[in-house]
Amino acid sequence: MKTKLPLLFLLFCGIANAQTYTFNTVTPIPDGTGTSCGSGNSAGNVSVSLNVPITATITDPTKVTINLDLVHTWLGDVVAELGTPAGGSCALIKRLGAATDTSCGDSSDFATGNVLSFNAANTTAINVVTPGAAQSIPAGAYAPTGGTSTYPTDIPLCNLTTFLNGVAVNGDWTMTLYDNGEEDTGSLNAWQIIFTTGFDLNTQDFLFTKRISVLGNPFNEALTLKLNEAGNTSTVLRIFSIDGREVFNKSYASNDAGQTISIETGAWQQGIYMLVPEIDGRRLNAIKLAKK
């Protein structure tokens, strides 16, 4: 029989509030040097950072938005690289319109105030054809977009779903702007990260009861639990998805202290789950889990 957690239970296990962090100091992007574009030039670059003081882990990348306000007179020059506190990085914008490693790409503009909003749920690429040459890219919600050239090869184009999932948010996030061509120039006006309600699994939610611990949270293909006390005559473990569906229910007989239980979770969808343990007929506090 399928069972659901009461709605009240789910409400009291809510996720962190929305958080917004903004850098808004106008910062010039140094011009590239050389006589060509792309790999034929030495790119100019500048990096600025945002400090995120909260301790949490991203479990829903669609609830993280990166906004970028920049100006540049030749967008084919530009690479915009997002960096995480742990050191991972990828490109939100990568030499738009560039077909070869040395091509200069599209000559459209990035215009002040036309904020480009990037999110894992966005599917619309930045369209360099519609505005036409020397026209401005409109503000909008975009997927990370690049030219067909892979240069620079050490900065892959972002897949925000896989890039952000499981990332610890605490620390310095960076935005690095590169200018891969000469003559045309630009500036970063502002950039912003918005963590919308429900993006995270707060580490405060990893608190264990005295009787049971979670080993590895977030988890992936298997969830491992440890029973901390000996002599329990009955342990019942029930796990619910965030929408209240019961995905696991199993009873265990008496145990030794330190006994571990491994639960296969490969078929479970990514997201938030709630473990509701019951030992010797007594229900313990629920523990929030995350499948990455």
Automatic annotation (TrEMBL):
Gene3D superfamilies: Galactose-binding domain-like. Residues 1-18 form the signal peptide. One of its GO terms (molecular function) is serine-type endopeptidase activity. This is Putative secreted protein (Por secretion system target). One of its GO terms (biological process) is proteolysis. It comes from Flavobacterium endophyticum. The keyword Hydrolase applies. The keyword Signal applies. Keywords: Hydrolase, Protease, Signal. Residues 16-202 form the P/Homo B domain.
